[in-house]
Automatic annotation (TrEMBL):
InterPro entries according to UniProt: DEAD/DEAH_box_helicase_dom, Helicase_ATP-bd, P-loop_NTPase
Top EC category: isomerase
Single Gene Ontology MF annotation: four-way junction helicase activity
Superkingdom: Eukaryota
Matches recorded under PROSITE patterns: HELICASE_ATP_BIND_1
A single cellular component GO annotation: chromosome
Keyword Membrane: no
Reaction catalysed by this enzyme: Couples ATP hydrolysis with the unwinding of duplex DNA by translocating in the 3'-5' direction
Pfam families: DEAD
Lineage: Eukaryota, Fungi, Dikarya, Basidiomycota, Agaricomycotina
Source species: Fomitopsis schrenkii
Protein name per UniProt: DNA 3'-5' helicase
E.C. number(s) listed in UniProt: 5.6.2.4
UniProt keyword list: DNA-binding, Isomerase
Gene Ontology terms: biological process: DNA recombination; DNA repair
Amino acid sequence: FRARLQAVIIDEAHCVDEWGKDDFRKQYRQLSSLRGYTSYSIPFLACTATCSTHTFDVLWDTLQFGYRPFWGLDVGCDRPNLLFDIRPI
């Protein structure tokens, strides 16, 4: 397993903060234990479209990113293909 592992990818990573707070999915806050099964050379990738500063801090600590190289991409929230349309019923 370890010899073939290329990366650990957490999609919808904001759930680590939202769901890991209590007993609902407390294991989410224990994802750092995966570091014990992998080496620090295996990259961890956290993907989310909704990441507040607080959630970012939780992910950083929970996934033990520490001082390793970091690359982030923030594309903002301008989505011209989406709109909210409110109409009376």
